[in-house]
Design brief:
heterodimer, A: mainly beta, 6-stranded mixed beta sheet, about 55% strand, B: mainly beta, 7-stranded mixed beta sheet, 4-stranded antiparallel beta sheet, globular
């Protein structure tokens, strides 16, 4: 079955440090890939997405590139801020047949940014 | 425009009881999905409904059921509650059911089973 693996957290960085959160996936077909962010006490918000190989998603200084050859979708940001402290979820989505959209999330990586 | 709304926000039940959670999708969205998020874990897929038909079901027991109404709102029902059902239940809507459709999440319903 489909699955998503993320680097374990928590990740603690100082403000303005470089961020990488690794994400790899297993899928039977050609999924779309997403990064969602969850701030304390809130639901999930879409951060960025990529729908085919070599696409780069970007938003708010975050970016991730869909690498089909390594089945990866690593999240990066050049300079993190305290306000980026949250839990980040990598997810994949496939669709097909009568089974609608199959959305699978990774376990999440908690990021803490210190001033 | 209003986002995805869920009710109630919080709920406390005892073992063996039944619970109904409600979700209203973003206007124009025809797909609603339900997820269970246990503390410290990623969301686990429970159901997807599209155009009022069940299109996907995750690995959850038959105590979990759902439906979608003609206005595309949805209910999630859980019977015979267990302590392990305590979680944040998230509803997400999307315009369709294709892989590239992003899902828009509501704030969730926090269910505590005592």
């Amino acid at each position: 079955g489909n699955s998503v693996t993320q680097m374990e957290g928590p990740v603690t960085l100082s403000e303005e440090a470089f961020l990488t959160i690794n994400c790899t996936y297993t899928a039977t077909g050609y999924p779309s890939l997403f990064w969602y962010v969850q701030y304390p006490g809130e639901g999930l918000q879409l951060l960025l997405k990529a729908t085919k190989a070599d696409d780069k998603g970007s938003n708010k200084g975050f970016e991730a590139t869909y690498r089909k050859e390594t089945t990866s979708f690593h999240l990066e940001k050049g300079s993190v801020q305290v306000s980026d402290s949250a839990v980040y979820f990598c997810a994949l989505s496939e669709s097909g047949g009568n089974y609608g959209q199959n959305f699978v999330f990774g376990p999440g990586t908690r990021l803490s940014v210190l001033p | 425009d209003a986002g995805v709304t869920q009710s109630p926000t919080h709920l406390i039940k005892t073992r063996g009881q039944h619970v109904t959670l409600r979700c209203s999708p973003i206007s124009g969205h025809k797909s609603v999905s339900w997820y269970q998020q246990v503390l410290g874990q990623g969301p686990q897929f429970i159901f997807q409904y599209y155009e009022k038909e069940e299109r996907g079901r995750g690995n959850f027991p038959d105590r979990f059921s759902a439906r979608q109404f003609p206005n595309y709102s949805s209910e999630l029902n859980v019977n015979a509650l267990l302590l392990g059902d305590s979680a944040l239940y998230l509803c997400a809507s999307s315009p369709g059911d294709r892989s590239y459709n992003e899902q828009f999440f509501g704030p969730g319903t926090r269910l505590t089973v005592l």
